[in-house]
Amino acid sequence: CPGGRRFMAKTRSRPLPQELLQTESRSVAHVPDIEAKHVLDVYDSIAPHWHGTRYKAWPRVQAFIDGLPRHSVVADIGCGNGKNMPACDSVGFAIGSDFSVKLLEICRERKFEVFAADCTAVPLRTGAFDAALSIAVLHHLSTRERRIAAIAEAKRVLCIGGRMLFYAWAKEQTSGRSGHVFESADVFVPWHLKMEGEVDLTAIKETLPASGSVDEEKNALVFDRYCHVYEEGELPSLFEAVEGLTIVECYYDTGELVRDSRADKLGMAV
Q1: Along the chain (270 residues), what's the average pLDDT of each consecutive run of 10 residues?
Q2: What is the CB neighbour count within 10 angstroms for residue 130?
Q3: Percent of residues in the chain assigned helix, strand, coil, to nearest 5
Q4: Which of these, 182, 207, 198, lies nearest to 257 by C-alpha position?
Q5: Which residues contact 66 (CB under 8 A, 6 or more apart)?
Q6: Phi, psi at residue 208, to the nearest 5°?
Q7: In a 10 Å sphere around its CB, with 0-12 CB exposed, 13-18 middle and 19+ buried, how is residue 76 labelled?
Q8: Cβ atoms 49, 166 nearer than 8 A
Q9: Helices and strands (H, E) in the chain, number of each type
Q10: Which is it for strands 212-215 and 220-228: parallel, antiparallel or unpaired?
């Protein structure tokens, strides 16, 4: 993607055509087309620009990390550009994973320990981690089964008594600062890249992924990100579907609905 900059404005999402959502029964480890084209391809396309807007842990994520025991080993599942990983240095050590290779390349440049994986099937040892983070990942999963699988996978890697923190977008944004307006639960949220100077948008259009388009009037590229935003009561039902979790706290944080959970007991891996 050519050089550009993102411009901020009131972001209005578009309801997702229901035919684009996966309806057939498939393994939760299979990444649906909507996620491959409108999540993975988008983040691979905008990685450098995304990196410029995400540079440190949010305050309550930082507070969660600061509350962990010393020498904690943290799994950052869906680490993106690694913005939460430096915060873990004060309490222990973090290992990150993401399915965007372009974001992982940024992590490696920053000397973070990362690898590529889908959040529903991470190649990490069962019961080996003191804490797990899933920050702004759950709203990019397009089926209930994959959402539950992501929660269960984070729980699997925790030791007994381990903690995990999930952030996901809430549909109700009246008190948030994100600038998003959601008209339905499954939406496309545009990411705008304003092009600098004179750019041949026609030539660029031929190289864009399915999620990308050109706004010639604004001299910008637009990438449609898939998001499932959570209505009140929906997120708790996902955690209730995973055995062995105790919900410590649920709160709204500038438009994000959050789950802080504790693994009381873990199944035996044989």
Answers
A1: 39 78 72 94 90 83 96 97 96 97 96 97 97 95 96 97 93 63 88 76 78 83 92 89 90 69 36
A2: 21
A3: 25, 30, 40
A4: 182
A5: 87, 90, 91
A6: -75, 150
A7: buried
A8: no
A9: 7, 14
A10: antiparallel
